[in-house]
Amino acid sequence: MSIDRPHGLELVDLGDLAAWMDDQGLGQGPIIDVVQLTGGSQNVLLRFKRGGREYVLRRPPLNPRHDGSDTMRREARVLKALKGSNVPHAGLIAACDDASVLGAAFYLMEPLDGFNAAVGMPSLHAGSPGARHAMGLSVIDGLSSIALIDYAAIGLGDFGKPEGFLQRQAQRWMKQLEGYAEFAGWPGPDGLPDVHAIGEWLNSHRPKTFRPGLMHGDFHLKNVMFRQDAPTLEAIIDWELSTIGDPLIDLGWLLATWPGPGGDMSQTTIVVHPWEGFPESEELVDAYGRLTGADLSNLNWYRVFACYKLALILEGSWARACAGKAPLEVGERLHGNAVRLLGRAGRWIEGLAT
Fold first, then answer.
1. Inter-residue contact 301 to 205 (CB < 8 Å)
2. Residue 5 above 50 pLDDT?
3. CA–CA gap between residue 322 and residue 268 (Å, rounded)
4. Which residues pair with 109 in a beta bridge?
5. Would you tell me which of 3, 59, 110, 145 could form a disulfide with 87, CB atoms 3.0–4.6 Å apart?
6. How does 137-175 read in b/e, with b if 16+ C-beta sit within 10 Å?
7. ∠ CA 337-173-331 to the nearest 5 degrees?
8. How far apart are CA 81 and CA 152, in angstroms?
9. What is the pLDDT of residues 190-222, one digit of tens each?
10. pLDDT(253) > 60
11. Which residues contact 122 (CB under 8 A, 6 or more apart)?
């Protein structure tokens, strides 16, 4: 090996990987130039070369919260189904469902050479408000392409359960909040302003119908990669929460995490600098409606739900921190984010924010 051993290699036996690749006809010789990639996901990402070709391996962490092998199988299935579509994604090379090979299911995909805007931008993008405006619109182009895909035609007809999907969502997260009571030291829901009122509003204003479609499940600026040489998307990444449901939840999630008017980042969980030039949320909504033809009359419900769900996810980290199961500093920061998200949801309910 020509470089120091990356931490992720503790979970990847290169000999076993090479033997499996031999069986798949994927290159010959040693696996070299192994680099662990970083990002928002806890999953292990290793970039390496074999036989003159580059690969990226993705596998779950050692102790995932959910079935990591099942997550990898679902992700690989989505990437395989998206081949040939106009949804920007990393190309799937091969997948291994057999957890005995590396201790968990995994897959190999084509490397991406783009960048994450929340980490930093190259000079082409950082130096041009016009380029950043195009970047924002390309995010909507990508999101719209997911919503428009015929999921049954690409083999994902049984990938989710759209019947009763919205009813399950609101109820699930109310139960999630109640479940945090198991963590000793958590102050309880009283530390989340108006959380019960917002939950009741979501139940009473839930859309009666929706158009089922493929959902990414965690669509925001940290889960897209932009091209280095143009202000457009290279790929949408991290498909581990994808399913068949209501695609407007993805739009609501993007809006909930998008900075407020004028680039106000005090109400969101994602910070991007420089921001000047990125479209305001109203322009994103207009573009999405034009591209998809979706009925956006209930858009406010989706924005509020996204804030509510994300706030309760973040509050879970605070509850675990109160019980000594997560760093206290991290828990406090995420609790603060949860409070701000619920405040944004409340202003949307009252029609005081865009």
1. yes
2. no
3. 23
4. 56, 92
5. 145
6. bbbbbbbbbbbbbebeebebeebbebeebbeebbeebbe
7. 30
8. 10
9. 999 999 999 999 999 999 999 999 999 999 999
10. yes
11. 115, 228
Query: ∠ CA 213-216-222 to the nearest 5 degrees?
Result: 150
User: Shortest CA distance to 331 belongs to which of 342, 316, 345?
Assistant: 316
DSSP H/E element including 79: helix 68-82
Q: How far apart are CA 57 and CA 36, in angstroms?
A: 10
Residue 133 has which token pair? 């405006």
Closest listed residue to residue 148, CA positions, set 212, 90, 92: 212
pLDDT at 4 over 70: no
Distance of CA 180 to the CA centre of its chain: 23
pLDDT given for residue 170 in this prediction: 80
- What is the value of pTM for the model shown? 0.93
CB 80 within 8 A of CB 235: no
AA identity, residue 42: Q
Average pLDDT, stretch 164-180? 90
